[in-house]
Amino acid sequence: MKDFFLGKYRFYKITSAVLIVWMLFFDVNDLFTQFKMYRELSHLQEEKLFYQKKLKDVEAKQKAVMGNSKLIEKFAREKYLMKKPKEEIFVIVDEDNQPLEK
């Protein structure tokens, strides 16, 4: 390390070393911030894939339901708890508050 700071271009070597240290540890976009942002980006990409899959599932259910009036009624009763006059609806759920029938 001693030979690094000695020599013909000492000013440029010292300035370069200080600049590199500054960029790695003290800058707004330092190494740790870049790593944290990379992890967040990968997490958000996984979330995006999850929601794209959910969207495809919902679109498939919508296509299946919209063609059949009996399925529309069943969907409305199960998902939105709609009912006919003078009718009671009971929804049986598990421990996670999810309906048992899907």
Distance between the termini: 69 Å
How many helices in DSSP terms? 4
Question: Which range does the strand content fall in?
Answer: under 5%
Using the CA coordinates, give the radius of gyration: 31 Å
Written account of the structure:
Pfam families: DivIC. This is Septum formation initiator. It comes from Pseudarcicella hirudinis. It is rod-shaped and about 95 Å long. The protein has one domain (2-80). 0% of the residues are buried. The model has no long low-confidence stretch (mean pLDDT 84). It is 68% helix and 0% strand. The chain is built from four helices and no strands. By secondary structure, the chain is mainly alpha-helical. It has helices at residues 2-5, 10-26, 31-66, 69-80.
SSE order and pairing:
Blueprint: H1 2-5, H2 10-26, H3 31-66, H4 69-80
Distinctive features:
102 residues, Septum formation initiator, FtsL/DivIC, mainly alpha, rod-shaped, 4 helices
Outline of the structure:
By secondary structure, the chain is mainly alpha-helical. The chain has helices spanning 2-5, 10-26, 31-66, 69-80.
